[in-house]
Design brief:
With about 725 residues, the chain is of the alpha+beta class. The protein contains 23 helices and 25 strands. The strands form six sheets. A five-stranded antiparallel beta sheet has the order 5-4-8-7-6, with helices on both faces. The chain has a five-stranded antiparallel beta sheet with strand order 10-9-13-12-11, with helices on both faces. α22 links the parallel β23 (about 655-660) and β24. α13 crosses α18 (about 555-565). The N and C termini lie far apart (about 155 Å).
Length: about 725
């Protein structure tokens, strides 16, 4: 007190002096929240004051001093500034939010900020919404219930209020918002400033929840309906239905048990089902129950159950585990099984009848042809004997030639039968089929005659085949003769080769394994075949030719040769459209023999002085072979059975070749003799001769190196050529 004003307010005198001067001059003023910078005990500080200045006059009207009313407002000013910053930040957050509905209201519920998310969800822009009551987004029902923003705000004054309800869009549609309402901080005077609402659009979730509720309700209804359906099925089913424990104890059965097996439900429940099983099926059924206990399900499980009258019924079950029990449905298959067994018996009888019919046809045709041939042989020999008795030798050669011809035709007939039955003895070699056909062209053209054109189309790069070339030549010749006969007025025969890749479907159509094959197809422009003829074409002695024009063995021989060579034959034909018959043969992975190799084999000559052991129980055959080979300069030792032949081999005699019949008496067949001989003399060459060779007798059709086959009846030329070939390949002994 008493200190000069400029001293008291020294730190603010520069700001205060103009105001004081104005007050002394009669210009009184009032200042609100005027900022002052003052020295304090903490240093200079920004402060704010609200004050007024006015003159005080004495009795004479002179200025006696100033009346100053001052109130520091620093705390309120700072609080208001902070509030304004908070409101600005809130405004920026609200207006920028795009994934939530956010808006604020004043204390009266009028919207003063509106988020981008609110615009996206509700459709109102910020210009539309700001200044409008928040109740505009509430439904009519909520307005009627006063569930508007004020009511929610009242609940939120204690903290916050959850708000989950339908709201209105600008277009009148509804959206389900889930969120909360929070009060805004009160102002410096302690007054309410309004509220903020934050919510998510959960219309899809609400719809999904309602759909789930409806689904659950529907499922419950469906379960109820299905339970009723199951109960009806359980009662009405004609199949046996069973629930049993894994130990076999029956827990529930349906009424079909009474209808099918005669037992009532009370007689069965609690009883072990194994007590009803046929004794022969008991082990099988117990094992099945154990399998179901371990999780196995059976689509078809068969056993026999005892009827109450003591008989047994065949039951086929579909059974598996369920809820720790055996669940099974069984069908009475007693009549079905009896019918199937009767059908099998009938089919067996039919097959036997067909077999006997085929045997009758085969033996009848065979007897007819062989009787004709034997008549030719015996008649000519009898005539020869009569001429020799009379001393007339001028026609002897004619009768001998005629008898030999009949004998050769009989041999050919035998080979055809063996080919059909796939038991002929083949001599397979790696063969170039194109070259084989090329070598036959002159023969084929002379055979079919001048009215028929023959064209060959050989595929470039044709794969080789491991086949008996002679048999393939015979097959092609037979096919060309058949084609010629189908074209009585002439026509065209086409022989075509090709490489074939047969996939699963194509191989299945031809009854072959999938893989690589070569085809030899002979086509004609003749009369064609009916479906019935195609079906029977491979049957022995079946022919559509006139009597005396064919034996009916040609196609059956071709079929047998192809099958024995692991191939197939197929006929493609239509009436008046010609016929194509294709032979399919497996591809050989190696190379075919070169022409010079084949010629060397064909021209090989015998080496004189070499010793051959012949084992055959037929003395006439031994003597025949002895005579033929003796004339070729070989030394021949004969033996009537395997034991005698092995004694010769044990004697130390030098033997270059063993010739043995496959079918020998006294316990050793030809293959066993050959194996024993090679045990004594490793590498010994062996020539099997046979008229009927089981594959097993020569090692399932697979000969070891140095082993060959010759089929009876054989010509002297075939015997000498085969022996010469084997001798030329080297000696052993």
């Amino acid at each position: 007190m008493g200190a000069p004003f400029h001293v008291v307010w020294a730190d603010a005198w520069a700001q205060a002096k103009p105001i004081i001067d104005d007050a002394f001059a009669g210009r009184s003023q009032r200042f609100t929240d005027l900022p002052w910078t003052l020295d304090t005990d903490r240093g200079q500080a920004d402060t704010w004051f609200t004050f007024s200045y006015s003159r005080v006059l004495d009795a004479r009207g002179e200025v006696a001093g100033l009346f100053i009313l001052t109130n520091e407002t620093t705390e309120r000013v700072l609080a208001d500034a902070a509030l304004r910053g908070s409101e600005e930040r809130l405004r920026l957050v609200v207006e920028g939010a795009r994934d939530h509905v956010i808006f604020t209201t004043d204390a009266g519920g009028v919207i003063n900020t509106w988020s981008a998310g609110a615009e996206a969800v509700l459709g109102w822009t910020a210009e539309d919404a700001i200044g409008q009551p928040a109740s505009m987004i509430f439904t009519d029902e909520d307005r009627a219930d006063r569930a508007d923003i004020r009511e929610i705000a009242n609940a939120a004054r204690q903290g916050c209020a959850d708000d989950e309800r339908w709201h209105l869009r600008k277009d009148g549609t509804r959206v389900f918002l889930n969120g909360s309402v929070h009060p805004l901080p009160i102002d410096a005077q302690g007054q309410e400033r309004g509220f903020i609402k934050i919510a998510r659009n959960e219309t899809a979730r609400w719809q999904a929840q309602k759909d789930l509720e409806r689904l659950n309700a529907n499922l419950e209804q469906q379960v109820t309906e299905r339970t009723a359906d199951r109960n009806r099925l359980w009662q009405l089913s004609s199949d046996l239905m069973l629930i049993a424990g894994f130990d076999g104890s029956i827990q529930a059965v349906n009424p079909a048990w009474t209808r099918i097996l005669g037992w009532s439900e009370s007689e069965l429940v609690g009883r072990p089902l194994f007590s009803l099983i046929h004794p022969d099926d008991l082990h099988h059924t117990v094992s099945g129950a154990a399998g179901i206990a371990s999780g196995v399900a059976y689509a078809r499980f068969e056993n026999r159950y005892r009827h109450k009258d003591g008989s047994y019924r065949d039951i086929v079950w579909n059974a598996g585990p369920g809820d720790g029990q055996i669940i099974a449905v069984g069908r009475d298959a007693t009549e079905e099984k009896a019918a199937a067994e009767a059908l099998v018996a009938t089919e067996a009888q039919l097959r036997q009848a067909q077999k006997m019919e085929a045997v009758g046809q085969l033996t009848g045709g065979l007897a007819h042809d062989f009787n004709n041939l034997l008549t030719g042989v015996m008649g000519n020999l009898e005539l020869l004997q009569m001429r020799l008795t009379r001393g007339k030798l001028d026609d002897a050669e004619r009768f001998i030639v005629a008898a030999q011809g009949a004998g050769r035709r009989a041999a050919a007939l035998t080979q055809r039968l063996l080919a059909f039955s796939r038991r002929q003895t083949l001599d397979p070699r790696p063969t170039d089929v194109n070259r084989l056909i090329l070598g036959m062209e002159d023969l084929l053209r002379r055979t079919v005659g001048p009215l028929t054109d023959v064209e060959t189309v050989g595929a470039a790069g044709l794969w080789p085949a491991m086949i008996d070339g002679t048999q393939l030549e015979s097959a092609i010749l037979n096919l060309c003769i058949n084609a010629r006969d189908a074209m009585p007025n002439g026509g065209r025969i086409t022989i075509e080769t090709a490489n074939k890749w047969l996939d699963q479907r194509a191989a299945r159509e031809r009854d072959l394994p999938p893989g690589q094959y070569l085809s030899i197809c002979v086509s004609d422009t003749g009369t064609g075949m009916s479906a019935e003829t195609i079906d029977r074409a491979f049957e022995p002695f079946y022919t559509t030719k006139a009597i005396g024009q064919g034996t009916g063995l040609g196609l059956s021989m071709i079929y047998g040769f192809a099958r024995q060579s692991h191939g197939q034959v197929r006929i493609y034909s239509e009436i008046d459209q010609g016929t194509t018959i294709c032979i399919y043969l497996p591809r050989y992975a190696g190379d075919a023999l070169l022409l010079e190799e084949e010629e060397a084999i064909a021209s090989a000559a015998a080496a004189a002085g070499e010793t051959i052991l012949v084992v055959d129980d037929e003395a006439t055959i031994r003597h025949l072979i002895d005579e033929v080979l003796d004339e070729q300069g070989y030394t021949v030792i004969g033996a009537a059975d395997g034991a005698a032949g092995l004694k010769v081999l044990q004697s130390g005699a030098k033997i270059e070749l063993l010739i043995t019949d496959v079918g020998l008496p006294n316990g050793m067949n030809g293959r066993q003799v050959a194996d024993a001989a090679r045990a004594l003399r490793p590498g010994l060459k062996v020539l099997f001769i046979t008229g009927y060779a089981e594959n097993a007798a020569v090692g399932n059709g697979h000969l070891e190196p140095g082993m060959e086959l010759l089929t009876k009846p054989f010509t002297i030329q075939a015997l000498t050529s085969k022996v010469s070939d084997m001798m030329r390949s080297g000696t052993a002994g």
